[in-house]
Design brief:
Helix content: 10-25%
Shape: globular
Number of strands: 13
Order of helices and strands: EEEHEHEHEEEEEEHHHEEH
CATH architecture: Alpha-Beta Complex
Number of domains: 1
CATH topology: Spore Coat Polysaccharide Biosynthesis Protein SpsA, Chain A
Largest sheet: 7 strands, mixed
Structural class: alpha/beta
Strand content: 25-35%
Strand order of the largest sheet: 5-4-1-6-11-8-12
CATH class: Alpha Beta
CATH superfamily: Spore Coat Polysaccharide Biosynthesis Protein SpsA, Chain A
Radius of gyration: 17 Å
Amino acid sequence: MKVAIIFAAGSGTRLHPLTHEIHKSLIKFNGVPLIEHTINNLLQVPELTKIIIITGYLASDFNYLTVKYSNLTLVHNNHYSDYDSGYALKLVAKYFDGNSDIFIISGDMVSTTNHFNYEFATNVMVGVTRDSNDRKDDWTYELSDDGNIVDIIKSNDTNSFLAGEWSYVNKLWAKKLGQDLNSSEQVLMLKTIMVGKYLINNSIKHHIELKPYVLDFNSHWDIDNIKDLERTNKYFK
């Protein structure tokens, strides 16, 4: 079985004023809200039993999804503006029971291909090749000698992989994550760490293999700012 958890709580401040009245995950591309592109791809995945969306900012605007999609549940994060994104994992800890593989997905990303259908041989975090003309500091993966992801760092190295917007966790690792997420000692850490960093730290703690699943720069986008929005729109006309 497989479960998908979509993070859609943030307020999208870098897209103001557009996101004053619409959540960035609900911005439409080719007439379809961004998050529904992801949902429709997930619905094609064999053995996917449930989709959970973590909401926060403009939470009620997502309510229609529970009517439209029968296997979809909303979980509200009351602390989306107070704590870092890692805290939201605590809210969905019950799904990390070792019975399902889990996709952990950002609600503001989209790809030209449905990569969720791929049969992953190990745990992965998406990495995106960089535009050779882009020299700005951005979140990238630091890899060990054997190719495991061991950190997320800011870098302007055009040979590095940009940190992508989703991860795949197999049952074995999901069970270990669940045990940690249900520990009271983890709460303080989860409040102050982004979800990607927490996953990486946890994989190292449990000696779990975690590899980059590399996508081409022009096939995968996350919508952080107006430039991203304009770039993505080119592919949805």
